[in-house]
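Margin note: ligand = 3-isopropylmalic acid.
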Amino acid sequence: MTHTIAVLKGDGIGPEVTEAALSVLGACVPVRVREALVGGAAIDATGDPLPSATLETCLRSEAVLLGAVGGPRWEGTIRAEDGLLRLRQSLGLFANLRPARFMGLPTPLREALARHADILVVRELSGGVYFGQPRGGDGNEAFNTWRQSAAQVRRVAHVAFRAARRRRRRVTSVDKANVLEASRLWRRVVTEVAGEYPDVELEHRYVDAAAFELLKAPHRFDVVLTENLFGDILSDEVGVVAGSIGLLPSASLGEGPSLYEPVHGSAPDLAGRGTANPAGAILSVAMMLELSFGRAELARSLEAAVMATLRETRTPDLGGRATTAEFTEAVRHNLEWLRWSHPSPEDEASYEWGV
Ligand code: NAD
Ligand code: IPM
Ligand code: MN
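Resulting structure:
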């Protein structure tokens, strides 16, 4: 069966890592690609970071693959990042899954603890200070509104508890309930939802303490459930466990097609060099195979191929000298070898994204 996906390459290293991920996806399943503009590239072409044609293309596709948006050229009144935020809103995406685990790579953390780290950040994607109205300001003062509804908390909490059931059955809910009303509501609703999952252990942490503990003792976390802004920050932080921000994938789930994108940004400092780490984008495609196409066994093979590749082929962010193209070619090679030598890779599965 041919899968139809929308591909939004975006800016900076976005096109480089998206092309790498697409070439790997094409080696896994037959795909029909519909390209569309987003972010700065869309501003340049149309004046709008999310043209209506792009949104229509996404809505007509089974899934969306996005590279990254943003850059110094689009930091005026019309911002590239708005394209991504409006896309999340328009697709009704509310649960952003951002897994990070130890991958056998150098890390500044105590390796004895990092070795067992396997964390899934479940980030609420539709509320919080990102979208709260009113917002605005003049040259002397600016303001945003932090708004969170019980319904938003409830639906993302269910995603987190269901994920925990397929993992190590522990949810750490992260908030700032000692200061913020929105966080007090968050904590109350998460506690209510936890009542429906007596087999899952729930703990609460304030975000400042959680940020410290995630690096001090990453092995003790399983699912980290948190709101939009805290999730943005903590999901970059846990990249330390993996070894580079370039390794982290994500999936955003909602009512319609899901969106897959690496956690990292457009890395303007690296754009055009051909040395960006494409692993985060490639692992996002693995999440697409599992969550949108129901091909968990292929996702496991692809993850295994990335892990095998990382043993000897590393881009400069990991201290290596490989180019994006060399890394991608090695993943394709290892994937072919794994599929040939392990016709039933589910037996070999070492890891599940947990959803
Ligand atoms: P960034 O993630 O782009 O880069 C942070 C650092 O990590 C840089 O040193 C960069 O070189 C490095 N890095 C990132 N991805 C890498 C990869 N795949 N391989 C190797 N190294 C990598 O974050 P930033 O510099 O804060 O933001 C740059 C732009 O990207 C901004 O405009 C920001 O708004 C945007 N951004 C977009 C997204 C997205 O589209 N999802 C996410 C984050 C940031
Ligand atoms: C991310 C990014 C986005 C966010 C920006 C580019 C709007 O940092 O996906 O993590 O803050 O959500
Ligand atoms: Mn971010």
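The two ends are 23 Å apart (CA to CA).
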